[in-house]
Amino acid sequence: MIKPSEEEKGSTRRGLLKAALAVAAAIPFLGLTTRPSKAAKVSKAAVAYQDSPKGSQRCDNCRLFEPPKSCQAVQGVISPNGWCRLWGPKG
Ligand code: SF4
């Protein structure tokens, strides 16, 4: 059996390192991250969003509200005084 020389081993390691760096550099472009995209949000109509609270339930006391006027789950500008069917209390 022919053993690779030290020079050949170094060349193989460099090749693997270059391939690993190329894959790592491509991850953001391939969408291979664990963060949800903004496209994953639902429309206001789909969750019966309204610009007024429902009793004591309002966006600014919902677990999904992102101040000052966004929501993790619903598209568009979200009023702190709004409400939708996805409302849930802050934990
Ligand atoms: S009530 Fe609905 S729109 Fe408001 S923050 Fe919660 S999930 Fe988002």
- Strand-residue proportion: under 5%
Helix content: 25-40%
Helices and strands, in order, run as HEE
Ligands bound here?
iron/sulfur cluster
User: How many structural domains?
Assistant: 2
User: What ranges have pLDDT less than 50 throughout 5 or more consecutive residues?
Assistant: none
What general form does the structure show?
rod-shaped
Largest sheet: 2 strands, antiparallel
At the first level of CATH, what is the class of the largest domain? Few Secondary Structures
Q: How large, in whole angstroms, is the Cα Rg? A: 25 Å
Could you say what the CATH architecture of the largest domain is?
A: Irregular
Number of strands: 2
Task: Give me the number of helical elements.
Answer: 1
Question: What number is the mean pLDDT?
Answer: 80
Could you explain how this protein is built, in words?
By secondary structure, this protein is mainly α. It folds into 2 domains: 1-34; 36-91, High-Potential Iron-Sulfur Protein, Chain A. It is 27% helix and 4% strand. The chain is built from 1 helix and 2 strands. The chain has one helix at residues 6-30; strands at 65-66, 70-71. The chain has a two-stranded antiparallel ribbon. β1 and β2 form a beta hairpin. It is rod-shaped, with a radius of gyration of 25 Å.
Give a brief rundown of this model.
With 91 residues, the chain is mainly alpha-helical. It contains 1 helix and 2 strands. Strand 1 and strand 2 (70-71) form a beta hairpin.
Q: What brief labels describe this structure?
A:
91 residues, mainly alpha, High-Potential Iron-Sulfur Protein, Chain A, 2 domains, two-stranded antiparallel sheet, 1 helix, 2 strands, 27% helix, rod-shaped, binds iron/sulfur cluster
